[in-house]
Amino acid sequence: MKIRRILATAVAVAVTAPAVLLSVTPAFADAPPTAQTQAKPTLEELEKAAAVAQEAYDKALAAKTAAYEVLKEALSDTAPLTLAAKAAKTAADEAGTSKTAADQAVTDAKAALDALPETATEEERTAAETAVTRAEATAAAAAADKTAADAKAKEAGNAADDARVAAARAYSLVQKALTDALHAKTAADDALAKAREEENENQDCVAEPGLTTILTGVPDSITAGTTTALSLRVSNRTDKAMDDVLAHAFTHATDTSGLKETDKLLHLQWSTASSPKWHSIGGDHLIDGIGPLKAGAHADIKLRLTIDASAPAGNGAAFVSADYTNENGSCGGNPDIAMYDFGVLKAAKPKPGKTDSGTTGTTGTGTTGTSGGSNPSAQGTASSNPVATGDGTLASTGSSDTSQLGLLGAAAVALGAAAMFVVRRRKAGSQV
Q1: How does DSSP classify residue 261?
Q2: Under 8 Å CB-to-CB from 212, ≥6 apart: which residues?
Q3: pLDDT for 111-143, tens place per residue?
Q4: Cα pseudo-dihedral 412, 414, 420, 421, rounded to 10
Q5: 3-class DSSP state for residue 80?
Q6: Entry pTM
Q7: Strand, helix or coil at 227?
Q8: Beta strands 242-255 and 331-333: pairing type?
Q9: Domains, the chain, ranges and CATH?
Q10: Residues 339-390: tens digit of each pLDDT
Q11: How far apart are CA 258 and CA 13, in angstroms?
């Protein structure tokens, strides 16, 4: 498989040279396996590769932080080499001032010698010549001192500049190393995530008829504009615990012709003892308030079905199913969708001078309330038979086969990935 080649390459380079993980791209998936490609890596190997990449990233991040501090210090005015360069420059400037003064003294001494009159004595001329000689010696020493000071200043300045450049280069290198380490870490993490995903995909879910769903309280008919209390019991009738159980519920209705769907006018909500607040069941048809179920245990879920007052008369049905997943990756569920049908009665018109109480006049055994967000607690018993879809047959429910087939077909489409867990969890191309 293409993903296997990607993961094999990923783990190999993650251990040897994490930065090379950048080559593990989607484009590589279309390339044929090379001679260097290793055998399929295990999850343990991929986890090790991800850990190595994480460690490399952590070290690169620490190196960047340290390099930044060095760079900041090298660029500061108080850096030792910067202070030394400043001191050397000051000494060179002072030596230059001394040399200038010494040179001026030579000029002055020579001028004094040249200014002696012809009447000057031999002693006066000797003294002037001695002053010139001494000034020239002082100037020569000052020039030597200035040369030495300039050399030291240049050397100190170069040292400070070199430190700044070295710090800047080091910081640039660790920045790139951090970027490479991050890319390597991301590639290793992605490879591990894909392997785990594939591991989960490779674990086939199994049909588990022992995970049952029974809906009670469904009356023969429900009047539009009312709310009906229902009860769903999910039971683990097996000898094994299930770590996470999910129930699925869906309602579907049409007008009397069976051609116009009125699903949007039906609203289903759920509540459990652990999550007593009413939750609307969305487009995923999911009830996630169950959690784990021990062998032989069951969970009860309160449901309430509200039908808008504008709903036309017609036929309706409620569908329920359940599946489970375990922490070890195993999964399963009941492949059958239980169907409970009911009639939809048009909302009764209020009598003149009286307001509509919102109560139903149905003859079913379920108890109904108002459509104004009430919290009904009474639970009736199902007045219709569950319809199993596992073998493609439809049990008799008292309604026409045509409308029942239409309701059942709509449920299969609507529940789809939610209830038909085998289709959802198995690999493409596998057989149920």
Answers
A1: B
A2: 234, 235, 237, 322, 334
A3: 998 999 988 899 988 998 999 999 999 999 999
A4: 180
A5: helix
A6: 0.45
A7: strand
A8: unpaired
A9: 1-202 (1.10.287), 207-425 (2.60.40.10)
A10: 999 999 999 887 665 544 444 433 333 333 333 333 333 333 333 333 333 3
A11: 61
